[in-house]
Design brief:
Layout (H helix, E strand, L loop, with lengths): L1 H10 L2 E7 L2 E7 L3 E3 L2 E7 L3 H8 L2 E8 L2 E12 L2 H10 L14 E14 L6 E4 L1
Antiparallel strand pairs: 1-2, 1-5, 3-4, 4-7, 5-6, 6-7, 7-8
């Protein structure tokens, strides 16, 4: 999992895919954190992406950096503990102008049953499960 986290941090921006009814939806994200031994992302409850993950937690993340790319698939699980929210906001203090622990909008989600595949330099893909 650490290698997946490092890849996403280095990329800076990754793309999160969700399902909206029968349509795929993609959008850029930048938050990624490790807390309590799990890989986390963050969003706001008022956003469509939150509604989509609540309705169907299957997600994919894709990013590219330095000629390599990663695809991560798994299930998003909401963690409403204040400690998880605080950890994310400490990792991304710039979010504190829009989000606060326990504000009813801040959501942090961890990815479970994850399979990440890293493709690099015409080598065999590297598969990481967590």
């Amino acid at each position: 999992m650490q290698e997946v986290y490092d890849f996403l941090k280095k990329s800076g921006v990754y793309y999160l895919g969700t399902v909206d009814g029968d349509k795929p939806r993609m959008r850029p994200f930048g938050t990624v954190d490790i807390f309590d031994g799990k890989l986390y992302i963050q969003t706001g409850k008022v956003k469509d992406v939150s509604k989509q993950m609540h309705a169907n937690p299957k997600v994919e993340i894709c990013a590219m950096t330095g000629g390599a790319w990663i695809r991560l698939e798994g299930e998003a699980v909401l963690d409403d503990r204040p400690e998880a929210q605080e950890h994310m906001l400490e990792a991304y203090p710039g979010l504190k102008g829009r989000y606060a622990v326990g504000d009813g909008n801040t959501e942090v989600w961890y990815i479970k049953n994850a399979t990440a595949t890293i493709y690099a330099n015409n080598t065999e893909p590297k598969i990481i499960k967590f």
